[in-house]
C-alpha cells in the first residue's frame, strides 16, 4: 500500500504479489497464449454468440464464443483482453532485452549492462540453486541478532524487510502542495483479514495450508520446532486480523484514513513501542506531521462522519492496537514473523523449493493456478521492478507512435466536453455544487503515454549473480528517492505506472488521469479502428478515470487535489442516495456458491461509479463526435451497437473459481461480467441499441436505472 490511486484494473504487480510464481528448469512445453481477432474495424462480428439474447446476458453475447474457444492456459488464474495485452507488452519488452543480450557485452552502455545483468541474474536458476540460502543468510542473521524490540524495530524500518507497521512519503491529501509521512499497520500474510475470520471448510483448509507454508519457511530458516513456531506466527497474524485490521470497504473512506498527528501525538499512541527507532532507521527524523491511515475515530468524529454501529464494528484498532499487540508478543515470535516475511517475499530468487512452496500456496491454493509462469516472463517482471522506466524509455521509442498521443488528446478533450455538458444537465445537483464540479473538471491533468523525464536510476548498482542484493539495492534506492521528496515541491511529473503497463489510473491528490502507452492498443484503442469502438473502449476507460474524480471518495477532493468538502449538504445527500442504489444493485450479483457469495457493493462502489459514469460520458462524447449525424452501419451493426460491444470486449475474461473468490473479497473492481452487464442495463441507449424489453433478464424498469454522471 504505497499510495492511494485508483486503477482501471487490478495491477499486474498486485497480481504478481498475490500469485507469485516459481522457476521451472525443466523445459516444459509452453501452452500457447490465446489470441483475439479484432476484425477489420475493432470488433470481429464472427465472434458474437448469436445463440445468446443480448438483453439476457450482454457479456456472454459479446464474449462467450471466444471464451469457450479459448480455455484458460495453465499459467493463468484468469485470462482475457487485459491479459492478452499484458502478454504482448511482456513480449515487446522481451524483444528489447533480447536485442541487448545478443550484443557483444563490451559494446553495451552502462544502462544496457544493468538491464542485461538484472534479467540474466533472475534467469540463472542454476546459480540461484547452488547459492542456496547463503545470499539470504546475512539478512536472516540481522533479524535473529535483533534481540530487543528497539533493534527489531530498526530492521522493520530498513528498506527490503517485512514490517507489521509501514511508513511512506506521499502528497498530503489536505494540503496537496506538500509531502507528508503516512503511517499505518499491516502484517497479514493472507490476502485479507476475512481469510483469518473465515470459519467455512474452505477457509479452514486455506488457513491450514498457510500454516504448513509458514512451517516450511521457518524450518528452512533453522527453527528446530518449525511447526510450533508457525502456529505462534499464525496466531500473531490472526490477532492482527481480529484486533487491528480494518474491513477493506471501510479503508476506502478518505475522511477516516486521514488523521494528522504531531510526532508527540503519535508517540503518545505508541504505548512504549520503540516507534522512534523504526522511524529513525527509515530516515524519518524531524518530521512535523504524520498522517495515520488507520486510527479509529473518536465517538465525536464517528458521529460527525455519520458512521453507523455496523460500520464502526468493522473498524479495527489500527496502528495503536498494532503497536500494543507487538508489545504483547514474545520477541522470538516477532523475529520468526520477520524472517518468514523475508524468505517469502524473496522466494522467487531463492532455491526452487522456496519458489515451489510459495507458488503452491499463493498460486495454486489461493488462485487455483496449476502452473507457474515461464521464468523468462517473470524475469521481465523482475527487471521492470528494478529498472522499469529505463526499459520504458526504449519501449516508448519502439512501440508508441506519436499519432496515438494526438488521437488520445482529442478523445480526452471530447470526454471533458461531454462531462461539462453532463454536469450542466444534472437534475440532482444544485448550481453552487455544479460550479465547483466544473472547476474540478477544468483542473483535470491528463497524462498520456509516458512521463516526460523517465527515471534513470542513477547510483543504483545491479550486480551479476546477486538477485537478493539487487532487490535490496533497489529497495534502498527507491527509499532514498522517496525521502528526497520531503520538504520539496510536488513532483507533478511522477507516474505510478510504467509506460509498458496495461492499465490506467486516477490520482486524487494531483487530480490527474493517467494512460500509459501500453493500454493504447486494441481492444482499447486502434488508430484506424471504428470511432464507435474507440469510444466504447478507451473512451470508456478515459471516462472511468475521470469518473473516479467524482466517485464516492474522489468527489471528496477538489480541483487542487485537496480533501475538502465542496458539496452542499443537499447535493451530497442526493449523490449518496444514487451511490447507495448502485451498492444495492451490485450486492445482488452473486456469482459463487449457488448465489450465496456475492459482490461487495460497498467495496466496489468507487469502481462501479467509474464504470457507469465512464461509459455514460464516453457515449455522450461519441454522440458529440458525430455532430448530430447518424453513424454508418458496419457488418449489420449500428454505431451504438458497436460502441457497447467494444465496452464488453474490453472486459472479455474468465477466471478460476479460487481467483474469483479471492477477488470478491479483496478486489475493489467488480467481476468483469458485471462491469459489463451491471453497467449497460442502467443506460437507456443500450436498450434502444439492442431492442431490450421487459422480457429480457437484464431489463430494469426506467425508474430503477441509475444515472450519476
Ligand atoms: Zn478504477
The class by helix and strand makeup works out as alpha+beta
Radius of gyration: 25 Å
Which word captures the global form? globular
Strand order of the largest sheet: 1-8-9-7
Any ligands, ions or cofactors bound here, and which?
zinc ion
**The named CATH superfamily of the domain at 149-345:** Neutral endopeptidase , domain2
Helical proportion? 40-55%
CATH class type of the domain at 149-345:
Mainly Alpha
CATH architecture of the domain at 149-345: Orthogonal Bundle
Terminus-to-terminus distance: 29 Å
Mean pLDDT: 95
Low-confidence stretches at least 5 residues in length (pLDDT < 50)?
Answer: 12-29
Can you walk through the features of this model?
This protein is of the alpha+beta class. It has a domain at 149-345: Neutral endopeptidase, domain 2, CATH 1.10.1380.10. 51% of the residues lie in helices and 6% in strands. It is built from 28 helices and 10 strands. Strands 1-8-9-7 form a 4-stranded mixed β-sheet, covered by helices on one side. Strands 3-4-6-5 form a 4-stranded mixed β-sheet. A two-stranded antiparallel sheet has the order 2-10. A hairpin with a 4-residue loop joins β8 and β9. α9 (201-220) packs across α10 (226-244) and α10 (226-244) packs antiparallel against α15 (318-328). The longest helix is centred in the middle third of the chain and has 25 residues, at 375-399. It is globular, with a radius of gyration of 25 Å. It starts with 5 loop residues before the first strand and ends in a 19-residue tail after the last helix. The model is unreliable at 12-29 (pLDDT under 50). The structure holds zinc ion (ZN). Zinc ion binds next to β1, α22 and α24.
Amino acid at each position: 500500500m504505497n499510495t492511494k490511486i485508483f486503477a482501471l484494473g487490478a495491477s499486474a504487480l498486485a497480481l504478481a504479489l498475490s500469485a507469485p510464481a516459481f522457476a521451472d528448469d525443466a523445459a516444459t512445453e509452453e501452452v500457447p497464449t490465446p489470441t483475439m481477432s479484432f476484425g477489420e474495424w475493432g470488433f470481429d462480428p464472427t465472434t458474437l454468440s448469436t445463440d445468446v439474447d443480448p438483453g439476457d446476458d450482454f457479456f456472454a453475447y459479446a464474449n462467450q464464443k471466444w471464451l469457450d474457444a479459448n480455455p484458460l492456459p495453465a499459467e493463468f488464474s484468469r485470462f482475457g483482453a487485459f491479459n492478452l495485452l499484458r502478454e504482448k507488452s511482456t513480449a515487446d519488452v522481451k524483444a528489447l532485452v533480447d536485442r541487448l543480450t545478443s550484443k557483444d557485452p563490451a559494446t553495451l552502455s552502462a544502462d544496457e549492462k544493468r538491464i542485461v545483468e538484472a534479467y540474466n541474474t533472475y534467469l540463472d536458476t542454476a546459480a540461484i540453486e547452488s547459492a542456496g540460502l547463503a545470499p539470504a543468510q546475512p539478512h536472516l542473521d540481522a533479524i535473529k541478532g535483533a534481540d530487543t524490540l528497539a533493534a527489531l524495530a530498526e530492521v522493520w524500518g530498513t528498506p527490503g524487510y517485512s514490517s507489521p507497521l509501514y511508513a511512506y512519503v506521499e502528497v498530503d491529501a489536505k494540503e496537496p502542495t506538500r509531502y507528508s509521512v503516512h503511517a499505518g499497520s499491516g502484517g497479514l500474510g493472507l490476502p485479507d483479514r476475512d481469510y483469518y475470520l473465515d470459519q467455512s471448510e474452505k477457509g479452514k483448509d486455506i488457513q491450514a495450508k498457510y500454516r504448513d507454508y509458514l512451517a516450511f519457511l521457518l524450518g528452512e530458516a533453522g527453527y528446530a520446532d518449525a511447526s510450533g513456531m508457525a502456529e505462534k506466527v499464525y496466531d500473531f497474524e490472526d490477532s492482527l486480523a481480529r484486533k487491528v485490521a480494518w474491513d477493506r470497504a471501510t479503508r476506502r473512506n478518505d475522511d477516516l484514513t486521514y488523521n494528522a498527528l504531531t510526532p508527540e501525538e503519535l508517540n503518545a499512541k505508541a504505548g512504549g513501542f520503540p516507534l522512534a527507532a523504526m522511524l529513525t532507521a527509515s530516515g524519518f527524523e524531524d518530521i512535523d506531521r504524520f498522517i495515520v491511515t488507520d486510527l479509529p475515530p473518536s465517538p465525536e468524529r464517528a458521529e460527525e462522519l455519520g458512521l453507523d454501529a455496523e460500520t464502526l464494528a468493522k473498524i479495527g484498532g489500527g496502528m495503536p492496537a498494532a503497536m500494543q499487540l507487538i508489545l504483547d508478543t514474545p520477541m522470538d515470535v516477532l523475529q520468526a514473523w520477520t524472517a518468514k516475511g523475508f524468505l517469502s517475499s524473496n522466494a522467487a530468487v531463492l532455491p526452487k523449493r522456496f519458489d515451489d512452496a510459495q507458488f503452491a500456496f499463493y498460486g495454486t491454493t489461493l488462485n487455483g493456478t496449476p502452473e507457474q509462469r515461464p521464468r523468462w516472463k517473470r524475469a521481465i517482471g523482475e527487471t521492470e521492478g528494478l529498472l522499469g522506466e529505463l526499459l520504458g524509455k526504449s519501449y516508448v521509442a519502439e512501440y508508441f507512435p506519436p499519432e496515438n498521443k494526438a488521437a488520445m488528446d482529442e478523445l480526452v478533450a471530447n470526454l471533458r466536453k461531454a462531462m461539462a455538458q453532463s454536469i450542466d444537465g444534472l437534475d440532482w445537483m444544485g448550481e453552487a455544487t455544479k460550479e465547483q464540479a466544473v472547476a474540478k473538471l477544468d483542473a483535470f491533468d491528463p497524462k498520456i503515454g509516458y512521463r516526460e523525464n523517465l527515471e534513470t536510476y542513477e547510483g543504483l548498482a545491479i550486480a551479476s549473480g546477486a538477485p537478493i542484493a539487487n532487490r535490496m539495492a533497489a529497495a534502498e534506492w527507491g527509499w532514498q528517492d522517496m525521502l528526497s521528496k520531503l520538504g520539496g515541491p510536488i513532483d507533478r511529473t511522477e507516474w505510478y505506472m510504467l509506460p509498458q503497463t496495461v492499465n490506467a489510473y486516477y490520482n486524487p491528490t494531483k487530480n490527474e488521469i493517467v494512460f500509459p502507452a501500453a493500454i493504447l492498443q486494441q481492444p482499447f484503442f486502434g488508430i484506424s479502428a471504428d470511432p464507435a469502438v474507440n469510444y466504447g473502449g478507451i473512451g470508456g476507460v478515459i471516462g472511468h478515470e475521470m469518473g473516479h474524480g467524482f466517485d464516492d471518495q474522489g468527489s471528496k477532493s477538489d480541483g487542487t487535489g485537496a480533501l475538502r468538502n465542496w458539496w452542499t449538504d443537499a447535493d451530497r445527500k442526493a449523490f449518496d442516495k444514487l451511490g447507495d442504489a448502485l451498492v444495492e444493485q451490485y450486492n445482488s450479483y452473486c456469482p459463487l456458491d449457488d448465489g450465496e457469495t456475492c459482490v461487495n457493493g460497498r467495496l466496489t462502489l468507487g469502481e462501479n461509479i467509474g464504470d457507469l459514469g465512464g461509459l455514460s460520458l464516453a457515449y455522450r462524447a461519441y454522440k458529440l463526435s458525430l455532430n448530430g449525424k447518424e453513424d454508418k452501419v458496419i457488418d449489420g451493426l449500428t454505431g451504438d451497437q458497436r460502441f457497447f460491444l467494444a465496452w464488453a470486449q474490453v472486459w472479455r475474461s474468465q477466471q478460476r473459481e479460487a481467483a474469483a473468490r479471492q477477488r470478491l473479497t479483496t478486489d475493489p473492481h467488480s467481476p468483469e461480467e458485471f462491469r459489463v452487464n451491471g453497467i449497460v442495463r442502467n443506460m437507456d441507449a443500450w436498450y434502444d441499441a439492442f431492442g431490450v424489453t421487459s422480457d429480457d433478464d437484464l431489463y430494469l424498469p426506467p425508474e430503477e436505472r441509475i444515472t450519476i454522471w
